[in-house]
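To close the chapter, one final illustration. This time we ask the reader to focus less on the individual chains and more on the assembly as a whole: which components sit near each other, and how the overall shape emerges from the parts.
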Amino acid sequence: MKNEEDKLDMLLHKLSNTDPELSDAEMLTENIMQKIKAKDRHRNPILLTWIRSVTGTAAVLLIGLFLFQQNGIETTASATKLEPPEIRLNIDSVCLKNMKSPSTNLMAVYLCHLQQNSIKNKQFKIIEQQLKN
Amino acid sequence: MDQSTLTELITSSKRNDQKAFRSIVECYQYMIYSLAFRMLGNEEDAKDTVQETFIRVWINLKAYHPDKKFSTWMYAIATNLCLDKLKSSKYKFKDYSIDDTILNVISSENVEQTVINSELGIIIRKLTSELTPKQKIVFTLRYLEEIEIDEIVQITGMTPDKIKSNLFLARQTIRRKLEIL
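The assembled structure is written out below.
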């Protein structure tokens, strides 16, 4: 047992003192440097990488802003939903009831309103005269 | 190479100075070759490992922290590469019996006269053929490269207890082989 331990220690001592020989050390250095140059050629320039990341971030932000704005417009539109024309314009509902789509023909509604007003004015004058008499 | 020169070379290399890195390669390539040769027992694979190690060093140089010893950091990279190779099918268990080559080494007065590179590779492979990749790694680092346990901890990331148990098992296996002689 002791003999084997001694043998092993002796062998290890001798092996650790025996350095492996490196042939063509210069060639090995040259190969390493060539591979490094090739790696560097394939490596993206720092500026290009930087520009890529900045433009990528900007694109994402713009898309986000666009979506946010779209959502904002829809919210505003629903919040400020147009009131019925008869309330908003205070126009006689008789005119509106006769129109199929009042929002598309406001001029006609307005003319109708004026006619209604003139009729009412005439009626008002008649009543006023009757009261004076 | 003194520490200040090495620090200067590392700083320049971090700024993509290839001339500075060439100096580092010239200074350390033999150290890495010796380690890889002793771990793998094969000249060609050892040279491949040296190349791969320095490419990794160049790529990861910015991640190197000066608090760590540069040689230890390089040893760690080379050891990981060797470990990957030892786990590959090429290095799977082959039955190398102990023969006269090893007997000659033990009995000779001057080893360097007796052992040439190819024989040294054969001897290492025969001695360590029954060891697991991890046992081979710690055995080579401790007994052939004569690195202290504390540094092996940094190189391999293993605990001191794990290293010691691997060394014990490696010695036991090799001693059993030597009993045949």
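The radius of gyration of chain A is 47 Å. Chain A touches chain B through 28 residues (CB under 8 Å). With these observations in hand, you are ready for the problems at the end of the chapter.
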